[in-house]
Design goal:
Helix content is 39%, strand content 17%. With 386 residues, it is of the alpha/beta class. The protein folds into 2 domains: 13-44 and 288-385, Aspartate Aminotransferase, domain 1, CATH 3.90.1150; 48-285, Aspartate Aminotransferase, domain 2 (3-Layer(aba) Sandwich), CATH 3.40.640. Helix 1 packs parallel to helix 11 and helix 10 packs parallel to helix 12 (372-385). The chain is globular. The N and C termini lie far apart (49 Å).
Length: 386
């Protein structure tokens, strides 16, 4: 075969995708409760965003593998405004968080090595790892009135090919934040076994309540090599601008060596565009207006969902932050059958839990970013179906 085995993926549409395509071809008015693209969610974007790209500096190409100091200063200020410390020398820019993962897998892993990733979580890791000839193994999140890492299970998992542990803080879709008691165990485990700790923190600005026990930034650890990832896609609601970043932390010599390696990798691609780097400070500043709308939207929809489903046969699992809710539904049919029935009979699109590798049944996942009118009507139809 002429093509790489990296591309050997099942391409047959699942039943839900097939039904959705047919419904849309027929012109059915679908209430899409999975919408997670902020640019399609009816938010008001400041028109001044366009002006961030108006300077002549975007016409000059002067590449820096780590990213321009102007843009990295903007990222450092973003953290400083949240009471966190990220020095210029710790920051490396990427075109996206997905690219940041690719860089880190290149940095840390040889072909055939593995990284440990959470389950349930966003179904992207397997694709990203396969593209780098890296394997993944999933460690469980346990639900006991709230979500948390099954630390006992995780501690037994590293082997001679394990190179890193990935956490998503807060997790997508459970909305659970990493806790200080968990980071102590993770830091010790990584330091003892010579592993890196990678934290996806793209949703960290979207907590529903305050909690002093939450971990804000994994790169602040001292005893193991650690990386915090984020970007404009979520913190400013600007996925189309394609700017992410890595903040490296941990022991000084190891951190410096890691950043040197990342610089070599970034210099090979130089994928971050000059215009978005020149605009970064303005985009982060103006993006806060968008982020404020997202916080209001997600809080409003969460409250509405709780009210709508109260006393029904379905229930919303506790959620601390992020853009999603997990709805537990009765196991009188599979979650796929729930999703198919809702789409077929009620024109309501929700995601079944197996899309996120939930261990058991039955769960449905909804996006809190959905337009409120569609969200409310979709949940009313779900309640009737329940």
């Amino acid at each position: 075969m002429i093509f790489s085995t990296r591309l050997e993926w099942e391409s047959v549409p699942n039943r839900l995708t097939h039904l959705l395509r047919n419904k849309r071809r027929a012109g059915a008015p679908i209430l899409d409760l999975t919408e997670s693209n902020p640019t399609r969610a009816g938010l008001e974007y400041p028109p001044e965003i366009v002006g961030c790209f108006g300077g002549n500096e975007i016409l000059r190409y002067d590449p820096d593998p780590r990213g321009s100091s102007l843009a990295r200063h903007a990222v450092a200020r973003y953290y400083s405004a949240r009471g966190l410390s990220a020095e210029l020398a710790q920051i490396l820019l990427t075109a996206s968080t997905s690219e940041a993962y690719a860089y880190l897998f290149k940095l840390l892993c040889n072909p055939g090595d593995e990284v440990l990733v959470p389950r349930p979580s966003y179904p992207l890791f397997e694709f990203l790892a396969r593209m780098e000839s890296v394997a993944i193994r999933q460690y469980p999140l346990a639900y006991q009135g709230g979500w948390g890492i099954d630390l006992g299970a995780l501690e037994q998992m590293p082997n001679d090919r394990t190179r890193a542990i990935v956490v998503v803080n807060p997790n997508n879709p459970t909305g659970s934040f990493l806790k200080k008691s968990e980071i102590k165990v993770l830091e010790r485990l990584c330091a003892t076994r010579g592993l890196a700790l990678i934290s996806d923190e793209v949703f960290s600005d979207y907590a529903f309540t305050a909690d002093a026990e939450r971990v804000s930034m994994v790169a602040a650890v001292k005893d193991c090599l650690a990386f915090s990832l984020s970007g404009l896609s979520k913190v400013a609601g600007l996925p189309q601008m394609k700017l992410g970043w890595i903040v490296a932390g941990g022991p000084d010599p190891m951190r410096r060596q890691a950043l040197e390696g990342l610089e070599w990798i970034a210099d090979t691609y130089l994928s971050v565009s000059t215009p978005v780097q020149c605009a970064a400070a303005g985009l982060l500043r103006l993006g806060e207006e968008v982020a404020s709308q997202i916080r209001a939207r997600t809080a409003r929809n969460l409250a509405s969902a709780r009210t709508c489903l109260e006393g029904s046969a379905g229930g919303i699992l506790p959620v601390e932050g992020g853009w999603y809710i997990v709805i537990r539904v009765p196991v009188i049919r599979s979650e796929e059958e729930w999703a198919l029935e809702l789409l077929d009979l009620d024109n309501v699109l929700l995601q079944p839990g197996y899309f996120y590798d939930f261990e058991d049944e039955a769960y449905l996942v909804a996006s809190l970013l959905t337009n409120p009118a569609d969200f409310d009507e979709g949940l009313r139809r779900l309640r009737r179906r329940l």
